[in-house]
Write a structure and sequence with these properties.
alpha+beta; five-stranded mixed beta sheet; globular; binds FE2/S2 (inorganic) cluster; 15% strand
């Protein structure tokens, strides 16, 4: 069926069964390939996007559930030439190894900074906890989030 979804500030008409995971529509229909399929079970965070500002697992969310809501993906934050604040911080901190988790990490962090621009270290760690990095770059990811938040990058 035909559905209109708003992604990165633009309305898109997509032809999809209502129960199709948002992730499949983003990647397959809109060519927004930042969000990744990791587990498909809400357990890794590789597919994280923002829905109405909050972090959401796009692998679990039926596309019909985001009609009338605002979806934001990593592509909406900036470009290679003009990266967003978090994207630039992840690059500066060389937070990516294989990169598979990074779009999800950035979008989860964006949801935190949108709601709480100056989080504490404990708040950053608690918020980022659901997203996994199989390469083990968590410490660099945390540095990048601190950098984007304007906090001291080094902590104890
Ligand atoms: S792919 Fe969605 S949480 Fe793992
Ligand atoms: S950089 Fe490889 S999974 Fe995180």
């Amino acid at each position: 069926m035909s559905l209109v979804i708003n992604v990165n500030g633009r309305d898109h008409t997509v032809d999809a069964a209502p129960e199709t995971p948002l992730l499949y529509v983003l990647r397959g229909d809109l060519a927004l390939n930042g969000a990744k399929f990791g587990c498909g079970l809400g357990q890794c965070g590789a597919c994280t996007v923002q829905v109405d500002g909050k972090a959401a697992y796009s692998c679990l969310l039926p596309v019909s559930a985001v009609v009338g809501r605002r979806v934001r993906t990593v592509e909406g934050l900036g470009t290679v030439e003009a990266p967003g604040v978090l994207q630039a911080a992840f690059e500066t901190e060389q937070a990516a190894q294989c990169g598979y988790c990074i779009a999800g990490m950035i979008m989860r962090a964006q949801a935190l900074l949108d709601a709480n621009p100056r989080p504490t270290e404990a708040e950053i760690r608690a918020h980022m906890q659901p997203n996994l990095c199989r390469c083990g770059t968590h410490m660099r990811i945390l540095r990048a989030v601190r950098r984007a938040a304007g906090l001291p990058v080094e902590t104890a």
